[in-house]
């Protein structure tokens, strides 16, 4: 039981550390918002040009986002979101209730399930947000090409179109436009935004913008061809998703079903697992089963991602 108590205590410490990280992220987001408001105020009509230092500090703050902050950013969730705070509180309450009612082993299982479920939830939101963003890119590129065709320069066309683009792509373009107005090169701002949000086609567009700004050339034709390529890739992706839907669904079921059954047995037949954990052979069997389950989940995840 000492090992179980230590595991439960470790899970509680992890959840507490997560809450502290979220609180720190909220404070960092507030400081970044204040800096951004200062930059926008300096860029208001009639105000003197903004110095480069605030923009550099803002970019450095973005680069220093920790791993959890990166997950939240890609999922489109603010660090000070009430929904996120309530989710953490509900997970901590579930662990405490499981410990009081069902014991230390059940509390540890609930903590693991909450962590896995939270990570899966963030991944699902990030995947949906990425898919919506990629679907918006061809329309944005078409509008950019039209502006360049009538004689508008590439940076000016980008600044005009970015505020009129729908979310979630509009939020990314607006951030890149603000960084560009603050003194950072447009291609660097776009590539930095694409890297933090995990949008690879947007990074390619940033590279094209950099070449167009530095060396010139018919960048409108290149952007038009990228838009066509993105449309063809989206059509092929939809066809592949329709053909492989059964395989991906089977992979998810095979990966999540053992976890669900194991969690159900721990919650409703806790004595069985406690007796197995107390026995050396049973403890080795449980550790081996957990290791095999982890390996199987990783392989099935790679299979689902490759389709």
TrEMBL record:
Bilayer disposition of the protein: Multi-pass membrane protein
Swiss-Prot/TrEMBL keywords: Cell membrane, Coiled coil, Membrane, Signal, Transmembrane, Transmembrane helix
Coiled coil: 219-246
Assigned GO CC terms: plasma membrane
Domain Type II secretion system protein GspF: 140-266
Subcellular location: Cell membrane
Segments passing through the bilayer: 89-122, 249-269, 281-301
Signal sequence, renumbered to the chain: 1-24
UniProt-listed InterPro entries: T2SS_GspF_dom
The protein's name: Tight adherence protein B
Lineage: Bacteria, Pseudomonadati, Pseudomonadota, Betaproteobacteria, Burkholderiales
């Amino acid at each position: 039981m000492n090992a179980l108590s230590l595991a439960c205590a470790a899970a509680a410490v992890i959840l507490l550390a997560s809450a502290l990280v979220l609180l720190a992220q909220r404070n960092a987001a507030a400081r970044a918002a204040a800096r951004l408001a200062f930059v926008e105020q300096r860029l208001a009509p009639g105000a003197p040009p903004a110095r480069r230092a605030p923009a550099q500090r803002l970019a450095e703050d973005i680069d220093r986002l920790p791993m959890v902050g990166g997950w939240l950013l890609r999922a489109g969730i603010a660090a000070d979101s009430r929904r996120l705070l309530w989710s953490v509180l509900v997970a901590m309450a579930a662990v405490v209730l499981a410990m009081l009612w069902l014991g230390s082993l059940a509390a540890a299982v609930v903590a693991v399930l909450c962590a896995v479920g939270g990570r899966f939830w963030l991944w699902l939101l990030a995947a949906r947000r990425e898919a919506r963003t990629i679907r918006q890119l061809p329309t944005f590129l078409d509008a950019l090409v039209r502006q360049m065709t009538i004689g508008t320069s590439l940076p000016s066309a980008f600044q005009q179109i970015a505020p009129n683009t729908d979310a979630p792509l509009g939020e990314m373009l607006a951030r890149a436009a603000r960084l560009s107005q603050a003194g950072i090169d447009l291609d660097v701002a776009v590539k930095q935004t694409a890297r933090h949000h995990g949008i690879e086609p947007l990074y390619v567009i940033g590279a094209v913008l950099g070449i167009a700004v530095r060396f010139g050339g018919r960048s409108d034709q290149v952007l038009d061809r990228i838009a066509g390529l993105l449309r063809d890739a989206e059509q092929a992706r939809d066809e592949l998703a329709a053909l492989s839907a059964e395989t991906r669904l089977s992979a998810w079921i095979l990966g999540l079903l053992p976890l669900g059954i194991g969690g159900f047995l721990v919650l409703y037949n806790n004595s069985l697992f406690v007796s197995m954990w107390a026995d050396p052979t049973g403890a080795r069997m449980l550790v081996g089963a957990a290791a095999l389950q982890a390996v199987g989940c990783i392989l099935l995840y790679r299979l689902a991602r490759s389709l």
